């Protein structure tokens, strides 16, 4: 009987065109339809909006002095926020994976709060906390540090909204790492720093870089949380998303689409680069 079943299974596996999951064609069709409607169609609309502009007009819009200033503010704020999240996110993932403590499930659930919280609510909350009379702002003001309505507020808002990307990217990799490797290294006299540098970090590095890149790209497009705390001063604390919104308020849809296309291209190039680097790094790590 078992031979018969094995023979039937083998025949099923060898049958041309047979798929493992039933309804594969339907699932694939729905997936492609979803990708087309949610991802490709909006991008196509962006291209259509800018297609009516000449190259000179497109360049004039995206290289406008005020817009370029917004690129710079967005880039340096997103870079600082994502690097900060890289350090803090790694520590949070480490604590959640390697330690048991009371309230761990609550802390773990709170990691997703920035995903669930509307960005406008996050912006208002952060502005209230870090304003001069706020809970945090009162003490920071005594130290001569102003956060709300300054460029530093942009970094705080970006770090808050993009922190889960690092935690949730690193956490599964840490869970898969066997503690026995670290214990063996410690038993052979390796220091904590050596264990982290030689055993943990090579495995964590691709996931950490991916998390930081996702945090960076998320910060590039952040709008709701930033505008309430940034102050939005031209050439000082205006972000690119705000410039897109300003052009939309002026009913200049082509200019808004042109600026948005710059953000879109930057995000796509960064994600493609990090995926290529990650694939190459993993091949080298596994000796392939």
UniProtKB/TrEMBL annotation:
Query: Which is one Gene Ontology cellular component term of this protein?
Result: plasma membrane
Membrane topology type = Multi-pass membrane protein
What PROSITE patterns has UniProt attached to this entry?
ABC_TM1
* Residue ranges of domain ABC transmembrane type-1 in the record: 71-274
In terms of Pfam families, this protein maps to: BPD_transp_1
Decide whether keyword Hydrolase is in the record: no
Q: Which residues form a coiled coil?
A: none
Describe its function.
Part of the ABC transporter complex CysAWTP (TC 3.A.1.6.1) involved in sulfate/thiosulfate import. Probably responsible for the translocation of the substrate across the membrane.
Q: What is this protein called?
A: Sulfate transport system permease protein CysT
Species the sequence originates in: Halopseudomonas pelagia
Q: Its encoding gene is what?
A: cysT
């Amino acid at each position: 009987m078992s031979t018969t079943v094995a023979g039937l299974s083998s025949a099923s596996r060898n049958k041309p065109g047979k798929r493992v999951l039933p309804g594969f064609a339907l699932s694939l069709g729905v997936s492609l339809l979803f990708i087309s409607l949610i991802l490709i169609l909006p991008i196509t609309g962006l291209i259509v909006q800018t297609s009516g502009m000449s190259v000179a007009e497109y360049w004039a819009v995206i290289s406008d002095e005020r817009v370029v200033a917004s690129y710079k503010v967005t880039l340096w704020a997103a870079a600082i926020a994502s690097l900060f999240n890289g350090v803090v996110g790694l520590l949070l993932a480490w604590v959640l994976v390697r330690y048991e403590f009371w309230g761990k499930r609550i802390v773990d659930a709170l990691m997703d709060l920035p995903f669930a919280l509307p960005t406008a609510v996050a912006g208002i909350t952060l502005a209230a906390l870090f304003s001069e009379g706020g809970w945090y702002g009162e003490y920071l003001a005594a130290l001569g540090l102003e956060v709300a309505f300054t460029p530093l507020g942009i970094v705080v808002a970006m770090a808050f909204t993009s922190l889960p990307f690092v935690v949730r990217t690193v956490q599964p990799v840490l869970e898969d790492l066997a503690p026995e490797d670290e214990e063996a290294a410690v038993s052979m006299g390796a220091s904590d720093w050596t264990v982290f540098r030689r055993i943990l970090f090579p495995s964590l590095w691709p996931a950490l870089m991916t998390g930081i890149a996702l945090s960076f790209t998320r910060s590039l497009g952040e709008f709701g949380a930033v505008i309430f705390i940034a102050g939005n001063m031209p050439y000082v604390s205006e972000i690119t998303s705000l410039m897109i919104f300003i052009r939309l308020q002026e009913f200049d849809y082509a200019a808004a689409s042109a600026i948005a296309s710059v953000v879109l291209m930057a995000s796509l190039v960064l994600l493609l680069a990090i995926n290529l680097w990650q694939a190459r790094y993993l091949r080298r790590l596994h000796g392939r």
